[in-house]
Amino acid sequence: MSDTLLSDELLRQLMAMGEVDVLVGLATYNNAGTVEHVVRATQTAFAKYFHRERTALIIADAGSRDGTLEAARSTNVRDSTPLLASHSLRTMHQIAVPYHGVPGKARALRSIFAAAELSRARACVVVGADHQGMTPEWIENLVRPVQRDSFDFVSPVYRRHKFEGLLPKNVVYPVTRAVYGLSLREPLGGDSAFSGRLVTHLLGQSLWEVEAVRSGIDLGITAAAAVGGFRACELALGRRESGRDDRVALGSVVEQVVGSLFACLDMHQQFWQASPAATEVPVKGTLADVANEPVRINRKRMFDRFRSAVSELGSVLEQILAAETLAEIRVLTAKSDREIHFPDELWARTVYDFAAAYHHSVMHRAHLLQALTPLYLGRAGSFVVENLESEAAEVDGRLEELCLAFERLKPYLLERWKATDGR
Amino acid sequence: MGDKMIDALGEAWGSTLSTAARFLPHLLAMFIFVIAGGLVALVLGKTTGRALRFVNFNALCRRSGLTDLLLKADLPAPDVLVGRLVFWVVWIGFILSGFSALGLRPAEDMVGQFFLFIPQLLAAILMLAVGILLANFVSRAALLAAFNANWPSPRLLANFIRFFIVILAVTMALDQLSLARTVVLTAFAIAFGAIMLALAIAFGMGGREVARRALERRFPEAGAVEKDEMSHL
Fold it and tell me: Which of A333, B50, B201, B212 ranks highest by number of CB atoms within 10 Å?
């Protein structure tokens, strides 16, 4: 497989490099402003924590035009000598190559995994190239659970504001936990580590071929690891500066993330319909409390979109939602902004109705996901109102209740999933 | 004189009898065609309906919006409708074949025309069905896109698009059937032109404020819209 994924140039470099113990991959695209910092942190980690091991850094670039590759190539750990405790005993490799084919993270990750497999890496780490606050310790902390504790998958937990990541909190985390039985707080991944065994397994999966899964490949990888029964753990990584692109419209974000989630459910239906046992996921490191400082959020705008969607998109929602679910949502829209409370069970049924409708293709799938966006805004607005004054523990408690509601209603998902006409 | 009259009457009677004797088998054949055709059409119609129910045709039509349209027109469910269509097309075919069995030139011409008409009828039905599917798909896409872009009156826009595409499909179907071709095409051209003109005038004159507000919302000045300090991802 590797020979079709990797360019001749990269293959030659990998062959010359031979086997490695730790391989770090960066998927870059116009990250000239941050890639230097990430490369430097990685090289420092190699020199500081893995100086007895064979290491490699691979940058899979999607055709950046802002000098990302040049910045990455020119970065050398010797420029930051004062940070080093010792020098590497083995050769430290750095390979920068633009990856070819369809630009996107899936292609980049696949190339990195193929390189890891070819070089028989025992641990493969993937970190974002858009980090502003990554430290060498992140690399060390990601690698150690794989090397020392034989975990196959290390998933990150970041210190987030209570109103940050509302889409994963309200949709992706509860669904993956209820359906796959794997409780990972950041199923959309980010900075993760993989064992060589898992890398080989992932390369053989069909997730790379499904367009909807490719658009949210991190989630696809998490789901594949759950289905494969690999040992997973969470790693408290602290605050992640920068990160995702806020300029992308919410509709597109929902379409990609939730579309990827539903496509995964479709792909793994045999697995989750067999009701897999919930897997205990240990946490490495100390989880920091969620940040709680006041933030500016226009709740009125969110609720206005929600109300207007229920009245304007009624004909579309009728095809997706069960009659009782839609009736209860309609009742909500009659309430004032202060009174709107989107109950956990109603939200779980709403998401499951959408998942089943996606499975049955009751309409064009992009249309279906677009119709979810304003309903999600209603739920997100309700979450914000309920947790406005809440402390970290209360927010965690509410999220736990939401997850339990999704777990309780899994039979409802099964029922809707198996309905012959999709209604 | 009397003998001649009797002979004439006898000849006429004989001729009538021989004509009737020649015609009767044709008439019988026609009745057999009509009755047997009715039975065959009935079986085919029922079988078609059942086959469509088996492949869940009604659910497909409901998703495409065809069922809603049929309900509004007070027509039966799609599987029943197609079954009935098959019944009538087959039976009319048999009836006309029966007329053809009479050996009458006008009837034979009519049968020929009917069988030539069937492909046109099927093409027209196909055009209409595709038109309705397209109308529903495009109008739903427009509704969701306009709504998520925060455009004013997205449902009105979507309904207009659906109406326009359905009218276009109906016009094309009627044109295919060569039914009142001139009237239909002229009416369509006038109606389409009138709608476009009305829209242009309405938007240009009456909707200036709406257009201004829509454009302002679409292209806000820097800093005009407060950005939320939260991240969905």
Answer: A333
A234-273 residues touching B, CB cutoff 8 A: 243-244, 246, 249-251, 253-254, 257
Q: How many domains does chain A have?
A: 2
What are the chain B neighbours of A249 within 8 Å (beta carbons)? 148
| Predicted structure pTM score | 0.78
Tell which of A363, A385, A387, A423 to mutate to test the B interface (max B CBs under 10 Å). A363
Q: Among A342-356, B117-131, B199-213, whose mean pLDDT is lowest?
A: B199-213
- B150-178 pLDDT, tens digit each: 888 888 989 989 888 988 898 888 888 88
Name the token pair of A395.
Answer: 């927010």
Query: Using CA atoms, how far apart are residues B105 and B101, in angstroms rounded to an integer?
Result: 10
Residue B228 belongs to a domain = no
C-beta separation of A10 from A108 below 8 A = no
d(CA A30, CA A51): 30
| Same domain for A152 and A254 | yes
Q: Which domain holds residue B60?
A: 1-103
Task: Find the mean pLDDT for residues A329-357.
Answer: 92
A312/B144 touch (CB, cutoff 8 Å), yes or no? no
Neighbours of B175 (CB within 10 A): 16
Residues 142-171, chain A, touching B (beta carbon < 8 A): 161, 163-168
Residue A216 contacts B where some CB pair is shorter than 8 Å: no
Q: Which residue of A has its CA nearest to B154?
A: A312
Q: How many H helices and E strands in chain A? A: 20, 8
Q: What is the pLDDT of residues A249-306, one digit of tens each?
A: 788 888 889 999 999 999 999 999 987 777 778 988 887 776 677 777 888 888 999 9
- The answer as to whether B16 is a domain residue is yes
Let me know whether A309 and A355 are in one domain: yes
B80 and B135 in a common domain: no
Q: Which of A362, A371, A384 sits opposite B63 (nearest CB)?
A: A362
Q: Is residue A290 part of a domain?
A: no
Is residue A243 located within the same domain as residue A99?
yes
A221 is in which domain, residue-wise? Answer: 2-284
Same domain, B143 and B89: no
Is residue B232 less than 8 Å (CB to CB) from chain A? yes
ipTM computed for the complex? 0.73
The answer to the question of residue A169 being in a domain is yes
Longest dimension (CA), chain A: 69
Residue among B143, B148, B155 whose CB faces A373 most closely: B148
Burial of A294 (0-12, 13-18, 19+ CB in 10 A): exposed
Whether residues A364 and B232 touch (CB distance < 8 A) is answered with: no
For residues A303 and A340, the answer to whether their CB atoms sit within 8 Å is yes
Among residues B103, B137, B162, the one where a domain terminates is: B103
d(CA A53, nearest CA chain B) in Å: 36
